[in-house]
Every structure is written in structure tokens, then in C-alpha cells.
Amino acid sequence: MLQGDVGSGKTIVSIIAAYINCLSKKQTALMAPTEVLAIQHFENIKVLLKGTKIKVDLLIGSMKKKEKEEVVEKLKTGKIDLLIGTHALLSENVIFKNLGLVITDEQHRFGVNQRANLKNKGLLPDILYMSATPIPRTFALTIYGDMDISNIKTKPKGRKDIKTIVKNEKELVEVYELMKKEIDEGHQVYVVSPLI
């Protein structure tokens, strides 16, 4: 299991692992919990692996049936080295020719059976779980058994510090003013709300 903050470099580590796996003539599956994240991984990884012989493809639920069938056929025949997708990777018709590495991003968003289902599509593939949610080692051992846990503790070069400010409801006007200031400076603002 690889743990690290958002933006700490977990995806780069997974790409290196996938690259090494593909050099061994084995396929890699990277499963993400949402289509948005799967597409983001696909677009970024395609750019990072440009110029290599590694063939990367995408499989998500919203694709047209014909597109899915084409991807599944290429996967079966070994014409895809790295398949990135969502729960769509768990479908019965998704058959790997030679799966050697399974990468699960935000692994806590998948059930035990789902992760096992993907792992079972290969003959004892290596497994790399990634999580931005820190899991204490003792708890992780209880859940996952004897698993190596690696933590990315340093930020990539040039990464700015993340500043967290807690405000209460009475200070909402201050929050709006801070948001307006950021927008006026050309920055983006997004709001995460548990209930709309």
C-alpha cells in the first residue's frame, strides 16, 4: 500500500511500476473510483508515456457499447499494456491476456470483493493500493494482512504548502470575501458541501 497526500506523487510511482511491469511483457490494470478520476489518469498517463511502446487505453461505464467491445477485444489479444478504468474493469467480459499488476487508486472506495475480483483476473499479479487517506499500520495489518505499507512524506519539488483555515457559520461573510479576493486575482474557488 502506498499512502501520500493528494499531489504527493502516488500516480508517478504507479506509472513507474506499470512501466516496469509492461517491460516484463505483462499487462497492468489501474482502477479508479470515478469516471472523472479514471479519465484524468488516462489523459495524464498517455502524455507521460508518449514516446514509449506502451499502449494505454480506457474503459469506463459511460462509453458506447461498441467502444467497450473494441477495448475488451484489444485487451484479450494483448494489444493493450495498461488499461485504466472504473468498476467497468470488474465486468465478466473483461479478460486480460497476461495481467501482472493491479493498481487500485483510492482503494478505500472499493470493497474487498471488488479488489479481489480484479486481482483474480490474473495469475498472482502484483498489487499496488494507493490512498490519500492515512491508515495506521496496525489497522492496515488487521484489514489487509501482511502488507508492505509505504508513505510518501515529502512534497514534490516546487509544491506550495497547503493552508487550511477553519471558520464557523458566524464567519461566513469572511469566507465569501476570501473567495471573492481569490476570484478577483484570477484563481479558482470550489465548494465542497455534504448536503445541497
Our count of helices gives 6
Radius of gyration: 19 Å
- Mean of residue pLDDT? 83
Structural class of the helix and strand makeup? alpha/beta
Q: What would you call the shape? A: elongated
Spatial gap, N to C terminus: 34 Å
Low-confidence regions:
none
The portion of residues assigned to helices is 25-40%
Compressed to H and E, one letter per element, the order equals EHEHEHEEHEHEH
Largest sheet: 7 strands, parallel
Description:
There is one protein chain. This protein has 196 residues and is of the alpha/beta class. It is built from six helices and seven strands; from the N terminus they run E-H-E-H-E-H-E-E-H-E-H-E-H. It has helices spanning 10-23, 35-48, 65-76, 112-119, 137-144, 172-184; strands at 2-4, 27-31, 56-59, 82-85, 99-104, 126-131, 150-152. A seven-stranded parallel beta sheet has the order 3-4-2-5-6-1-7, with helices on both faces. Strand 5, helix 4 and strand 6 (126-131) form a beta-alpha-beta unit.
In summary, what is this structure?
This protein has helices at residues 10-23, 35-48, 65-76, 112-119, 137-144, 172-184; strands at residues 2-4, 27-31, 56-59, 82-85, 99-104, 126-131, 150-152.
List the helices and strands and how they pair.
Elements: E1 2-4, H1 10-23, E2 27-31, H2 35-48, E3 56-59, H3 65-76, E4 82-85, E5 99-104, H4 112-119, E6 126-131, H5 137-144, E7 150-152, H6 172-184
Parallel strand pairs: 1-6, 1-7, 2-4, 2-5, 3-4, 5-6
